[in-house]
Specification:
Helix content: 25-40%
Number of helices: 12
Distance between the termini: 37 Å
Structural class: alpha/beta
Largest sheet: 9 strands, mixed
Number of domains: 2
Number of strands: 22
CATH architecture of the largest domain: Alpha-Beta Barrel
Strand content: 25-35%
Radius of gyration: 23 Å
Shape: elongated
CATH superfamily of the largest domain: Alanine racemase
CATH topology of the largest domain: TIM Barrel
Length: about 400
């Protein structure tokens, strides 16, 4: 993200040019940023040589998945559709992990048939169903068992996954019980302990607490796990001057953990790979002035980007063209949908903007387009990939005729 001659650029293409060529609202991704994020992630954890499985739920576009595969990542999937997409993007089955609390029988059969690395189970009922399928097919299936470590990730309440009140994973008691019960099964091969405590984590401390719990339970179980799946959850900087997760400290914690536990680490990053590589290009429809603030009404809405309405998330909104005129008044950026929650950001002061100006909502590469909908019967936006000076449509703009 940069300004050149006071114009906003994504790599070497201006937001203004993208808006003229492809219309608005439009999701735009930077190839170079995704590549650099992958290199940076690998570099920071090189000493532990993890298997990195990209979290497909963060961005399931086939072109994005193909980039992820090109740079050597596997995939973490949570549905049959995501698994099909990962395989279509040529991600190798032996680098795919299937997670999620409610996999259907059809999904389990499909995953087993595709010979993926492992299925992370979250209940005994799921193990029972996998065992039935394995027995019928005379196979031994690799699984991981997900532990709920009751660890507070200190993140947004709605994206916490590792506390005892969350639906994910098994309690320590149940986890140990299932290890002992199925360790000699002819059809189940428990090769992984899986854990995930939440998303948008900005401190290494929750991970430290999580690793302490995992280490204690491994010692207690006396069980040898081939893999330890630590999930993902690494946060990105949505706001200027916010904290930044210290990968070096997290890596050091894991190295210490591995001295006691000889296992291969699996990571499931999503946001940290694609989050800050995505932008939503929008146009100002109207500016409605009131005594207390200006409502800046965009052609993007909560159906295009629901994170602010769903989580109270904040995304920086920047003008496509800089000017020196400051308006000392509160600006509230909102969408046109008939919901009070259809708003993006409040800004105390903003530069002078006008009707039909182009603005850019930043850091929407993860949990942006994947959470879009047709609410208010609005077509979904286009998706564009930028690579240096080239632009490529990776999802066509939806047309009303396709949804009505």
């Amino acid at each position: 993200m940069k300004y050149k001659k006071r114009q906003f650029y994504i790599e070497n293409v201006s937001a203004e040019r993208i808006a003229r060529k492809f219309g608005t609202p439009t999701y735009v991704y930077s190839y170079d940023k995704i590549k650099n994020n992958i290199y940076n992630f690998k570099k920071n954890f090189k000493s532990i040589n993890p298997l990195i499985c990209f979290s497909v739920k963060s961005n399931s576009n086939l072109n994005i998945l193909s980039i992820v595969n090109k740079f050597g990542l596997g995939a973490d999937v949570v549905s049959k559709g995501e698994l099909i997409s990962a395989l279509k993007a040529k991600i190798k089955p032996e680098k795919i992990v299937f997670s999620g609390v409610g996999k259907t029988i059809d999904e389990l059969k499909f995953a087993i048939n595709k010979k993926i690395l492992l299925i992370n189970v979250e209940s005994e009922n799921e193990i029972i169903e996998i065992e039935k399928i394995a027995k019928k097919n005379k196979k031994k299936i690799n699984i991981g068992v997900r532990l709920n470590p009751n660890t507070d990730a200190k993140t947004l309440k709605k994206i916490s996954t590792g506390k005892k009140e969350n639906k994910f994973g098994l309690t320590e008691k149940k986890f140990l019980e299932l290890l002992y019960k199925y360790k000699k099964s002819k059809f189940i091969n428990i090769i992984c302990l899986s854990v995930h405590i939440g998303s948008q984590i900005m401190s290494h401390i929750p991970y430290k607490n999580m690793l302490n719990v995992v280490n204690r339970i491994i010692q207690k179980s006396k069980f040898k796990f081939k893999y330890i799946d630590l999930g993902g959850g690494m946060g990105i900087q949505y706001e200027n001057n916010s904290n930044k997760l210290n990968y070096a400290k997290y890596n050091k914690l894991i190295k210490s953990f591995l001295k006691k536990n000889n296992s291969k680490i699996i990571f499931e990053p999503g946001r940290s790979i694609v989050g800050n590589a995505g932008y939503l290009i929008s146009k100002i429809i109207y500016i409605k002035k009131t005594n207390s603030k200006n409502f800046v009404i965009l052609d993007s809405a909560m159906n295009d980007l629901i994170r602010p309405a769903l989580y109270g998330a904040k995304h920086r909104i920047v003008p496509s063209k800089l000017n020196k005129a400051k308006i000392l008044k509160k600006h509230e950026f909102v969408g046109p949908i008939c919901e009070t929650t259809d708003k993006f950001l409040n800004v105390a002061n903003y530069q002078k903007i006008n009707q039909k100006d182009i603005i850019v909502i930043c850091d929407v590469g993860a949990y942006g387009m994947v959470l879009s909908s047709n609410y208010n019967l609005r077509p979904k936006p286009a998706e564009i990939l930028v690579n240096n000076i080239s632009t490529k449509i990776i999802t066509k703009r939806q047309k009303l005729i396709n949804i009505i």
